[in-house]
Design goal:
Layout (H helix, E strand, L loop, with lengths): L6 H14 L3 E4 L6 H9 L3 E5 L11 H15 L5 E8 L9 H17 L5 E6 L14 E5 L10 H13 L5 E5 L20 H16 L4 E4 L7 E8 L2 E5 L13 H10 L6 E3 L6 E2 L3 E8 L3 E6 L2 E7 L2 E8 L3 E8 L2 E9 L35 H5 L2 H17 L1 H8 L2 H8 L3 H7 L4 H11 L6
Parallel strand pairs: 1-2, 2-3, 3-4, 4-5, 5-6, 6-7, 11-17
Antiparallel strand pairs: 8-9, 10-12, 12-15, 13-14, 13-16, 16-17
Helix pairs in contact: 1-2, 3-4, 6-7, 9-10
Length: 454
Amino acid sequence: MGNALTMEHHKTDMAIIKEIGATTLRLAHYQHAQEFYDLCDENGLIVWAEIPYITMHMKDGRANTLSQMEELVVQNYNHPSIICWGLSNEITAASAVDEDLLENHRLLNDLCHKLDSTRPTAMANVFMLETDSPILDIPDINSYNLYFGWYLGELEQNDEFFDEYHKQYPDRVIGFSEYGADANPQYQSSAPEKGDYTETYQTVYHEHMLKMIEKRPWLWATHVWNLFDFAADGRDEGGKHGENQKGLVTIDRKTKKDAFYLYKAAWNKEEPFVHLCGSRYKDRAEDITEVKVYSNQPEVTLFVDGNAIETQKGHTIFSFMVPIHGEHTIKAQAGSCMDTILIRKVPEPNADYIFIKRSPVLNWFDAEHFDETCYSVSDTLSELRSNPQAGAIIDSMMSKGASERGDVADAVKDNPALQRMMGRITLISLLKQSGAQEEDIKQLNRILQGIKKN
């Protein structure tokens, strides 16, 4: 629809927000329509409002940032849903933390407090920003944008980041302002992995993140990026041009991805429901398939072709292993709530379910012996760098990558915290994420297998 939305569009969005059971919204990077702020007030949401001061600090942009902040605060002061004013988003992603950047943020922070003494200021910080950076001392509260398990690294590094931060700064207010994984509902997998754009991996990702968040009640707020797929002209990935597909709902608001129902099960306490995942994963080549159910009810029974096969008690996520041999009707029931999907056994995986962006990396370790006393692509970067010979190979490989992705390379090189995070990543994970070909990975592994471990 573009940017000129009608009141009906705003009401549709709000209805979806209420259905998922969210209590907070981060209205990202720009002024939003007064009609939508009104809807937030009426529905009792907790809102973070911010200006379009993002990614890169422009030395001649100070007056503009101050003007936009004044307009944001003065125009929206009387909306009770707004609880903080956002100074910037990922502003250090492409800018050094120098005195000009710090002074700009001090002025914005002071302006907010001058115009509104009742609300705190906030910042959304990019993951590679050092946690001892002086910029974190400027706003009243902070949050971090982390994408471990999608753009780089492993899911567990999100847990490690916040635990380390909270241990080092137990009295600081810290939140989680962005996290997500792209998913095209067309793409499905029985063995989902990072970077495959499947709806299936998106559920794996968000299941981990939900559990991580629930175990850390000291996070002041958490915000999924994003509720809806949205226009992003520079993107061409995951089978869609011009879209960021991290949404829990498609851009036309017509398809709620499975991960949407995960959060609904965790957050919506008023509407009893049960949801069977995988309705778009009809053709399945595996002999035994996983059937996942999301529900806000304490007990779920799974039926296959009318026969009850198992009842589970649990919280939010229920997983059943089901042998398949033909066409099957799968039904999940929790009290009076029911959901049904159809699946069928096929001899080969459905090619329409696979996003072909590179040659698939096979699990060739099953067929190729390797010596555990020597290094391999299964070792972490820090383990490999502990050996001069293996480290030189890795540095050479990383140097070649730096010529192609200088921005990321510079961020790693100049940031000790990011170096430590990268050190925990296995080489195979990094190579697969970068789209390396199978034969190239095998050749690198053969080289590393010639180097004895320390």
